[in-house]
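Hi V.,

Quick status before I head out on leave. The structure for the redesign project is tokenized and pasted below; the design run finished overnight.
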């Protein structure tokens, strides 16, 4: 099995991913230790990590971390700590760590909301 950010291929898919299809809910703010922040767009999310896209030219960050990732959910914000495990020109893949019970609850709410919004979009089509 291949390696991926210190995990085997099977481990990287530990939790199901939900793709973001609703632009109003896919903004993510990434906070770095040096006090700088930049915005990204949610591509997909799971309980274990997130894939994001950014076209911000100031968004140069290094593999590793830690970073604080601020998500929008029903008009509220919550954050989860993440380690950058993979990047290419504009896509960033983070693995969550130090995840508390409250973080898990927030992520579950966000994932449930994304599933509900996505299913509404598919029903309309």
């Amino acid at each position: 099995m291949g390696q991926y950010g210190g995990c085997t291929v099977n481990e990287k898919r530990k939790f199901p991913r939900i793709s973001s299809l609703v632009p109003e809910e896919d903004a993510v703010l990434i906070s770095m230790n040096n006090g700088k922040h930049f915005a990204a767009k949610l591509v997909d999310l799971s309980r274990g990590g997130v894939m994001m896209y950014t076209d911000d030219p100031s968004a140069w960050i290094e593999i590793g971390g830690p970073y604080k990732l601020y998500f929008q959910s029903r008009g509220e914000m919550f954050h989860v700590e993440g380690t950058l495990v993979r990047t290419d020109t504009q896509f960033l893949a983070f693995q969550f760590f130090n995840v508390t019970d409250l973080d898990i609850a927030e992520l579950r709410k966000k994932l449930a909301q994304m599933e509900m919004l996505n299913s509404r979009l598919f029903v309309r089509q």
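Above is the designed sequence. The chain has one helix and nine strands.

G. will cover questions while I'm gone.

Best,
W.
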